[in-house]
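Tutorial sheet, problem 5. The two components below are modelled jointly, 706 residues in total.
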Amino acid sequence: MEKKNINSVEEVKNKQVILRDYVTGHPKESDFYISTSTIKLQIPPGSNAVLVKTLFFSVDPVMQFHMRKVQHQHLDGYQYYTPGSPINGFGVAKVVDSGDPNFGVGDLVWGTIGWEEYSLIQQPQQLFKIQHTDVPLSFYTGILGMAGITAYSAVYEVSIPKKGDRIFVTAASGAVGQLIGQYCKLMGCYVVGSACSQEKVDLLKNKLGFDDAFNYKQEPDFHAALKRYFPEGIDICYEQVGGKMLDAVLGIMKVHGCITSCGMISQYNIAEPETLKNVMQIVVRRLTVKGFTHRDHHHLYPKLLDTVLPYIRGEKVVYVEDIVEGLENGPSAIVGLFSGRNFGKQVLVVSHE
Amino acid sequence: MEKKNINSVEEVKNKQVILRDYVTGHPKESDFYISTSTIKLQIPPGSNAVLVKTLFFSVDPVMQFHMRKVQHQHLDGYQYYTPGSPINGFGVAKVVDSGDPNFGVGDLVWGTIGWEEYSLIQQPQQLFKIQHTDVPLSFYTGILGMAGITAYSAVYEVSIPKKGDRIFVTAASGAVGQLIGQYCKLMGCYVVGSACSQEKVDLLKNKLGFDDAFNYKQEPDFHAALKRYFPEGIDICYEQVGGKMLDAVLGIMKVHGCITSCGMISQYNIAEPETLKNVMQIVVRRLTVKGFTHRDHHHLYPKLLDTVLPYIRGEKVVYVEDIVEGLENGPSAIVGLFSGRNFGKQVLVVSHE
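Model answer (structure tokens):
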């Protein structure tokens, strides 16, 4: 790459989403503000960093952990937020300048990126280079991104279902749940999902091919609801909700069943965790309960592409995105996740090219 | 076997431990009574049953589940108790008469047997024939019986530790815990146990070779206690207590750690299960929590004998028994389990030969 004189480098405005202060309960829009700084479109001389122009951001429930003062030290690899600085998260971007020989100008990448129009990535080794552009680029925030690794590893690595297994998926219309359900259907399972509105239930049943689905907000008794769909019990539950829902699931599992959990969204923002009464069922029913995150499964990404790209191209899998335009609408998109406002995977568009 | 005329068969007195009525809370001595009936020392003509003279009974916490009216249907293979009839449990006995070609008169067996001096076993296929009598016969109620299968399968099948792993064993001086701890030591692990008295702590440290041990009754803060012994966290916890102890364990596990549980004794007799606050740590720390019982692992028994008999003969493993004499003292031995009165594996001697 031709070296330019640093003084002649173009300087542009750079809109950013800034964390105002550490967040304790539910994040609110006022916990963030939009700021505009300037940035030179070149990496610092001698740096190995990569400068990118951001295109899409993935809006994820887990982001709210990064807003807290008391941090989960066990969640290694996380980039916690600093008040007064831009937040970050998974996103798709185009390389503008690069000090890393693995990335050239114009390359498309996905990985952890600051929530700003242009972002300097100091650790480009965490970026994935995007090789397949015949599918929507936004898919690299979801089905081909972090949520995609989560769903793929859940079904194809952590708890592999057998044909005919009776599967329950919670948060089933979300970024991860919709994929888990569809992958299980492709494996010949009976799949039921729970969601928080009739519209989402219709989506699961009519568009995503779930065998059945229910709106948990209309179920006063989760145990009774699950009993209706699983009179003989659940073989595998892919669980992302926690609390009362997890407790009901524990009470309805088959002997030797498995609960695989990559999140407990109902527990993220409450002062005291909900009481679980059925924990002893783990012993009574000889269950296996596994917690996992995508971070343990990044090595599976080539396998994921081999499996999932043909599913996308062959329309075997549908991926529902809820797309919001404009970085300035990011805080509202984050907040909406916790009331279930999003309809499918929440994506934020910063720029279309 | 010579066929005797049924009328000439010896009839003997048969002392029995009878369940008075279903039990709801802690079992009390008054929930049982001793009764003496008579029994003919011959199986009914044409029967495939086996008649045994009982020698030792295993006194197990799990027995109290069988006393309840509301039963755990998922605990398949259990023989629930009927008020007015003898209770049952694992025991060692000598065959007096047999309609099963696999068992001959004089054979020693262990398996599920009625709590009575002589017991007719209608399903002899569940009995194990005792082949090795150079070790104490009472060991077939423990280290070579059900508790033995539980401990062996925990360490050698369900959650196999690696050399150097940091292991926590709860209820560590009990029938199962003392074996798990010693097996883990033989595998080169660092092992800490918890127990309910200083005497038991001394046993663990001085006789059973645990690296350390603590009396949980003297620890107001389980989290702080565990932090002292496991500043870098626990790799595997073999857990039998549940409730507050399990909750503290969840908060101190290493990332990718495993909790293996074959019981939750603290939760068996309380009206409302204790609240667990750290369930979300299963996701945060990517833990695996496995419930299991010996019943899934009976096929491992030949391997257990291959491994454990040499350990016993070579004095590589110590097995501490708390031996009570006399069937009439059975109810008191059962009740004592729940206050931790037993010192090691609780055995009840009915007859020495």
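Marking note: The radius of gyration of chain A is 21 Å. Full credit if you identified this.
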